[in-house]
Amino acid sequence: MADDRRRSAYELLKGFWTENPILVMVLGMCPTLAVTTSAINGLTMGLAVVFVLTASSVIISLVRNIIPKEVRIPTFIVIIATFVTMVDLFLKAFFLDLSKALGPFIPLIVVNCIILGRAEAFASKNNVWLSFLDALGVSLGFTVTLIFLGGVREILGMRTFFGMKVLGKGFEPMIIMLLPPGAFLTLGFMLGAKNLIDRKLKEKRGGKVGH
Amino acid sequence: MEKAEIIVSTSPHIKSRETVPRIMLSVIITLLPAVAFSVYLFGIYVLFMYLVSIATCLVSEYIVVKLRKRPFTLNDFSAVVTGILLVMVLPPKFPMYGVVIGAFIAIVVGKQIFGGIGYNIFNPALIGRAFLAAAYPVHITSWIAPRIGSISAVTGATPLAAMKFSGVETSLKALFLGTVGGSVGETSALLLLIGSIYLFIKRYIKWQIPVSIFVTVFVLGEIFHLINPVKYPGPIFHLLSGGLMIGALYMATDMVTSPLTGKGCVIFGAGIGFLVVIIRLFGGLPEGVMYSILFMNAFVPLINRVTRPRIFGTEAAHAK
Amino acid sequence: MQNRAKMIIILTLFALVSGLVLSVVYLFSNPFIQKNMLAEQKKAIFAVVPNANSYEEKEKNGLKYFECKDSSGNVVGYALPAKGNGYQGEIKLMIGLSPDLKTITGLEVLEQVETPGLGGRISEESFLNQFKGIKDEPQVEYVKNKKPEKPNQIKAITGATISSRSVVAIINKFIKQFKGE
Fold first, then answer.
1. What is the residue range of C125's domain?
2. Cystine design at A131: which of A123, B162, B221, C12 (Cβ 3.0–4.6 Å)?
């Protein structure tokens, strides 16, 4: 029983750090770089992925035994596309401004590698409960990373965080942070920082440094 | 049998007296006339820009080298050169925090991330300026009138901007002497040329690069000028205005980020010249020297591969 | 053979279920989406034509436009949707015109993907308000770094001349076509 619980906890938490979809797997770069001009955009994109990934992972895990393996990819895509379209319509109906800000990147979740990757690598091989935890963990890890990335860019580029002023007039906003180069630079520094922290942690534990 | 004591080491086997600090120091000294003139032309604030930029470059270099636990490279003057060149391509009256950020980016992102001196792909000073151009597009296009000489437009537009947006041509004499508006150290073609003569003589810069840039810009500029003399300025105007002189003489010729062979340098320079004319005449921006050099920097490894000389003793047919 | 039949059946089944689910979601959300679009259009039209109370979609010279009337039924102006290329992508505008077509009564940006904080400032009030009450004859012009002097001029956004110029160009092009010149 204890083992089961530990396994569940691991599947849920790995997405935040050790198997973070952005910082470790470097998947889903298109929305990561394109929509994170503000924290709210990152949050919305993240939540859309949370919904699509958990819903499709659960369904795929449920039906994993009846799908012939030759047609599993098209079946996964049909399932994923269904949920993506639902999110798209939902945002258009109730959050028009956000839908406009995210533009084509909501429909593009269909081809986001993270979703198909989790379906193929995890949900199609594990039971519903673990698939649910895995999807939730990975997508929440994605969301947190997007909020961080969007937050940094919003603060430096517009002096605000979730629309609230956080920096005073003394700080001149850097337009570059809102442009594609700002996304690449910030992501690069985040990847570097993550590796640095991992190395320091390893050193502390007395492990050998190196890859 | 006794073993012979033979020390085997890889090439190079002949050591030159030319060292990195020596070359960098020469570059700094040859820049001094243009630096002094820029302080005279735009005022004492420019002097502080130089000092702040150099200090930031040195401090950033020190921090990164310490963090990476690498041998100390602070005393090779390369950071000082980057600091000076960065200010020379910024507009006078550029805010001081912008100078600090630009210098930091130049050293950290432009140079140290790639592994420090000798490993960087792009010219660090230009990376700093490119960052600032994207970060503060308003400041980077705000010019002030020089203390001497005339200025063509009300807001102190540069000769290139005046040409592009208002169709006003600046006199070539003013351009040659440098009594015009523009980035801090780019205005005087004369002083930059004088300074670089020493570098040519000592062969610290490959003459093929500036010469091929000048020739390409001249020829292309002349062609377009002949097609439509009203719309397109003459070739001499192209050569003397904007950042072409400082770019061709001091930025494109950076030893680390330019091709190894003479033939490669000609291709490199021609590419820069071509892009400069295209951006100036058809792009949205009045000036394109910075982007042209950065763009061609990216092609240097490729150029090196294509122009790799045949190894002596191997068959010519294999080189193809 | 049996395997192939299974593949087809399963995939068809999934597609069917998916289609069914999506139709339900669509039927549910479509009224909201339509309402949103109408509300947006209405907001933009009323913003550019002051005193308008109702509007009617019409067509002239190949352009779709909205004829606006006040509460007593007089024509108070026209709202003209326009679009064209900006610095990075398409800019969509709603132009308000006085009944005699000589004065611009207002301007709204419906969609744009200009650089945020720079060209993106064409959506800001301070830029748009400049267009209220300016003359469109002979055509709208922009000036840089100084105060507009003539009644047909506006001030371009500092550092975003191309975006400002695009907006002015789109306005001129559509007004010209609308007038049938």
1. 46-179
2. A123
